[in-house]
Amino acid sequence: MKNEFPGRSRRGGFALVPALFLIVVVAALAAVALRMTVGQQQTASLALQQARALAAARAGIDWSAYRALHGQCANGTLNLSEAALSGFTVVVSCSATSYTDGGATYQSFLIAATASYGLYGGPDYVRRVVRASFTNETS
Predict the structure, then answer these.
(1) Secondary structure (3-state) at 69
(2) Can you give the residue ranges of every domain in the chain?
(3) Which of 2, 26, 66, 106 falls 20 to 30 Å from 83 in CA-CA distance?
(4) How far apart are CA 133 and CA 139, in angstroms?
(5) What is the pLDDT of residues 57-90, one digit of tens each?
């Protein structure tokens, strides 16, 4: 059989193998880079949601402390619907214990607030618990 292209050998397709290898390696590196970027974005988003959950739990503590100091130490649930805390549910428990100091009777309060967002096991689920104790003694 005679070579149809003078000056060319039959090894003309040899560059195809390294080219395919290079394409596969570059595609794999692109996939790894994309995966890392998505992971970093999810981490940043979850950190922001955790900070919001902490703020929601602290809001629950403040709400319950106000009520306790005005004579209503009771358990309750807050469904937050404003601004960055929209969608958070805060379950608050409050317990009061009386004690006497110098002939006067005071109350000691223990409050726990659990803020959560999303469904357990979901990618956007966060939960934070904050506890506080204080008294209504002023001196």
Answers:
(1) helix
(2) 15-135
(3) 66
(4) 17
(5) 999 999 999 999 888 888 999 998 888 888 899 9
Residue type, 94: C
Residue 51, pLDDT score: 92
Q: How far apart are CA 54 and CA 11, in angstroms?
A: 67
Q: End-to-end alpha-carbon separation of the chain, Å? A: 110
Half-sphere exposure (Cβ direction) of 104: Cα atoms closer than 13 Å: 8
| Structure tokens belonging to residue 105 | 């009777």
Measured distance CA(69)–CA(138) in Å, rounded: 12
- The identity of residue 69, as a single letter, is L
Our CA angle for 68, 74, 78, nearest 5°, is: 100
